[in-house]
C-alpha cells in the first residue's frame, strides 16, 4: 500500500512540550482523521507535514520525497486548509487569488469560482471582514482549486455551522470518488470523523498512540462497566483508565479480549468505545476516580 505521508521518528521540542519519536504513515486513496485532546500536538505535527515547522530530528517524506529536495513540487500537489488566519487582512479575496493562483501549476479558475459561488463568499471584500467560517471556506476554495492529490486540513470543521459542515463532508466525499486523492485532517468533532474517515491516527501528549482502520478500533478498544465489587488491584492495573463512582466503575481498555476473561461474574458489560471515550480516558490516564 502506497503511503502519501511518512513520518519516521520525528522529534520537535518546545519549551514545555515535545513531539517524541513520532512515526506515522498515511495511506494513499483514503481519508485519515487525526485525533487527540487539546494540546496533544496535532497542529504541531500538521505544521511539520506542511513544512511550516521543521522537525529537530527524524524524517518526513511526502509522496516519497523530501521538502529539502523538492519543496516546490510537493507543495504544488498539496491543498492546505489551515485554522490560523492565512490571509492578508487588508486584501480582498480576489487580490489573494491573484497572489496564490500563479504559484500552482494546475490552478483551475473555473473550479475556484464554482466554490466561491457555492460557499457564498464575497470576492471583493477585504478578508478582515470575514467571519471564521468564511475564512475557512475561502481557505478550502483555494485548497480544492488546483487539483491537489493530498488535502491536509487542521480542524476544518471548527467554526462551521452544521449545514456547511455537512456540505463540506459531502464535498470531501465527492473528491474521494476518483480514488487517487488522499485526505488527512485533524478534528475534535468526532461525529464528522464517523461520517467520513477510513482510518484514524491518535496522538496523545506528543506521542503516536495508534493508526488504525476505523472499524478495527472497536476490536481492541472498549468501555467496560460494572460494580465496584468486580474490581481488584490486578484488574484495575489492566485498564488504561478507570473511573469509579458510588454506583460502579467505567473503564477504557485497549485489549478487551484479554481483559474480559479476568472478570468472573456476569455483572460486567462491554460497550463500544467512541473516539470521544478514547480521547477522554487516555487523557485522564491512571488517576483515581
Ligand atoms: N511555537 C511554539 N512554541 C512553544 N510551544 C508551542 C508552540 N507551538 C505549540 N506549542 C505548544 O505545543 C503544545 C501542542 O500544541 P498543538 O497546537 O500542536 O496542539 P493541538 O493538538 O493542535 O491542540 P488544539 O487541539 O488545542 O489545537 C501546546 O502545549 C502548545 O502550547
Which features would summarize this protein structure in a list?
single chain; 4-stranded antiparallel β-sheet; alpha/beta; elongated; 11 helices; 289 residues; binds adenosine-5'-triphosphate; 27% strand; 13 strands
How are the secondary structure elements laid out?
Blueprint: E1 3-13, E2 18-27, E3 31-35, H1 42-49, E4 57-62, H2 67-76, E5 78-81, H3 93-100, H4 109-119, H5 132-143, E6 150-154, H6 162-175, E7 182-186, H7 190-196, E8 199-204, E9 207-213, H8 214-220, E10 222-226, H9 233-237, E11 241-245, E12 248-253, H10 256-260, E13 269-272, H11 275-284
The site of adenosine-5'-triphosphate has 11 residues, from helix 1.
Short structural description:
GO terms for molecular function: ATP binding. With 289 residues, the chain is an alpha/beta fold.
Structure description:
The protein is of the alpha/beta class and 289 residues long. Helix content is 34%, strand content 27%. The chain contains eleven helices and 13 strands. Strands 5-6-7-3-8-9 form a six-stranded mixed beta sheet, sandwiched between helices. Helix 4 packs antiparallel against helix 5. The longest helix has 14 residues. It is elongated and about 70 Å long. The chain starts with a strand and ends in a 5-residue tail after the last helix. The mean pLDDT is 91. Bound molecules: adenosine-5'-triphosphate. Adenosine-5'-triphosphate binds next to helix 1. Keywords: ATP-binding, Nucleotide-binding, Transport. One of its GO terms (molecular function) is ATP binding. This is ABC transporter ATP-binding protein.
Amino acid at each position: 500500500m502506497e503511503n502519501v505521508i511518512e513520518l519516521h521518528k520525528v522529534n520537535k521540542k518546545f519549551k514545555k512540550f515535545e513531539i517524541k519519536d513520532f512515526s506515522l504513515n498515511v495511506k494513499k486513496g483514503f481519508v485519515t482523521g487525526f485525533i487527540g485532546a487539546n494540546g496533544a500536538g496535532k497542529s504541531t505535527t500538521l505544521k511539520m507535514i506542511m513544512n511550516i515547522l521543521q522537525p529537530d530530528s527524524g524524517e518526513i517524506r511526502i509522496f516519497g520525497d523530501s521538502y529539502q529536495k523538492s519543496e516546490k513540487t510537493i507543495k504544488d500537489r498539496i491543498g492546505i486548509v489551515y485554522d490560523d488566519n492565512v490571509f492578508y487582512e487588508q486584501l480582498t479575496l480576489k487580490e489573494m487569488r491573484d497572489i496564490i493562483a500563479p504559484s500552482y501549476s494546475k490552478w483551475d479558475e473555473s473550479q475556484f469560482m464554482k466554490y466561491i459561488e457555492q460557499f457564498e463568499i464575497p470576492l471583493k471584500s477585504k478578508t478582515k471582514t470575514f467571519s471564521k467560517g468564511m475564512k475557512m471556506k475561502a481557505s478550502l476554495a483555494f485548497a480544492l482549486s488546483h487539483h491537489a492529490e493530498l488535502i491536509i486540513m487542521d480542524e476544518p470543521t471548527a467554526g462551521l455551522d452544521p449545514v456547511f459542515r455537512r456540505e463540506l463532508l459531502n464535498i470531501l466525499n465527492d473528491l474521494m470518488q476518483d480514488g487517487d486523492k488522499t485526505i488527512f485532517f485533524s478534528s475534535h468533532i468526532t461525529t464528522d470523523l464517523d461520517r467520513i474517515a477510513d482510518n484514524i491516527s491518535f496522538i496523545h501528549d506528543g506521542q503516536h498512540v495508534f493508526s488504525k482502520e476505523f472499524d478495527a478500533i472497536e476490536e481492541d478498544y472498549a468501555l467496560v462497566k460494572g460494580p465496584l465489587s468486580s474490581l481488584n488491584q490486578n484488574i484495575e492495573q489492566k485498564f488504561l483508565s478507570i473511573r469509579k463512582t458510588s454506583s460502579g466503575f467505567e473503564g477504557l481498555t485497549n485489549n478487551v479480549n484479554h481483559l474480559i476473561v479476568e472478570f468472573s461474574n456476569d455483572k460486567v458489560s462491554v460497550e463500544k468505545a467512541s473516539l470521544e471515550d478514547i480521547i477522554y480516558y487516555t487523557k485522564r490516564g491512571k488517576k483515581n476516580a
